[in-house]
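User: Please predict the structure of the protein below. I'd like the answer in structure-token form so I can feed it into my own downstream comparison script.

Assistant: Understood. Taking the following sequence of 577 residues as input:
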Amino acid sequence: MRADLIPEPMPEWPSGWSHADSATPEAPRPRPTEFQPPPNPTLPLAAVPLAAEPPPPAAPLSPWRRATRATTRFLTRPWFLALAGFFLVSAGWAFASPLATSPDEPSHMVKAAATARGEFINSTSRHEIKGGFEKTWLGYPLPAKYATLDAMSACFRNKFLSAACGKKFGTDDTIKIVETSAGNYNPAYYWPVGLPSRWLPGVSALYGMRLMSALLNSALLAAAVGVAAGWRRPGWPILGVLACGTPMTLFLSGTVNSNGMEATAAVLAWTAGMSLALDDDPRPGQVTRRAIALGVGGVLLANTRSLGVLFTLSVLVALAVVAGPRTLLRLGRNHTVQVVIGVLVAGGVAAVLWNRYSDRLTTQTLSFPDLTTGQVATEVFWNSGTYLIEAIGNLGWLDVALPPGTTIAWYAVVGLLVLCALGCARWRETLVLVALMLGTVLIPLAAQISEARRVGIGWQGRYILAWVVGLPVLAGLLVARRIGPALPDAIERRVPAVAAIVLGLAGVGAFYWSMIRYAHSGWKKYGIYPIEWAPPGGWVLWWAVFVAGLAVLVTAVAVRRPSALCRPPPDPVNGPG
């Protein structure tokens, strides 16, 4: 019989298959570039397809092109873009806001200048009841010119006047006792911020302190973006961090006020803590970097204002609840995590010791003994809506309310994140989200009920920023962790970028509102002119700086690293999670 007429044997069936199956598995198709033996030995060798020649090796890059590529990769890293963007925006606020126009900024500048000179123990003290709440003034030996800070904005503060009437910074360098209402605040923020006052002359020292504050706060926010960018789908986590940069947060960052570092340190602590809790499959080194970020943010948060220790503790409690026992056990075996826990404990102890020391500086009898718990609770509760609006922004000495569109835009973006997170969160994560929302109302109530009889009812929306920022941070991480793999690529890439643009436009509205307030007291005059006051360098310069910063921040959300997109998500059945 001819060899070509012999029937081919039936293929072997894979394990678990039978002849009754309707489809026969196809043999793997050979790649066209591989050499295949001829099916019939009688065919000439020339008829067999030969393998394609491999492409020639790429020419080596010149040193200039290698350096250019490395520089481009560095400059487009999300954390670097965030550092540049947040600093430009904060610098815009630093120069476009007249000096001494953030809440109690004259006192914070005096505190910073004194701390940088090693003055930690007060020389004098007095108490004052004004505007429905009590202030304690502590005195420090400083150049007499720092006593003129309050007069720089007193003439137009809470008045329908432009900033043109403001007084100039003094020139008297003789030493005298200068008072501050921030004397009992923790020095952790004030020491680095006050350093420029030792070296720069005249009014340059004041702007130097503002820029140092802007750099410190921008670095903390950029570190939070760096942690968020380590996720496989970083757009949503970075958007959550960007949403924490409310106009109030960035305005405080660009002026001298420890409330700014309280908010930015909280953003870093929440981002690092929730990343440790949610990521069951971290890349090598990520646990170490996140733990260090949590340590830095937590220690700085604890050592800012009196509630800082409780805010840091709340981050750690939320981490434990979200992570669950197995993840906590895994984290507890990590050496870096163990060291960071020790650092956090030491930082918390230092903060408690300072708070006890500062309480002795201001100990006094009750200033408002007739206030009852019911009166305090009623007033604070009915002002909750005002506090939530102020957390987005009420600039200046609370005399520059933002346009409604800015507030609506911010809550629209945060609402998008929170609703998506609630739709995909597990029960532990939902518990923390609900607690964060309820805490925005309950924390002011508890704080004021405990302190109102001593200092009066003086709560402001900015005091709750360190708690509120946990909501968009956790929501952004949950969207990336739970439903990110199921989202179409177009939505995953475009929605965070579009939301960042919305936040940028909201920031433009806040900056414009502040500009017309100080340029011509424009409460009802929405046009730019007449310009009665302008910052150093003019409005055009700082508008350009501010808008450039917003554009860089939008770019930080839109940029994608290939490694963040190419890594497959864990198996939902057999893998972690």
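That's the full token string. The beta strands are 124-130, 133-143, 175-180, 394-395, 400-401.
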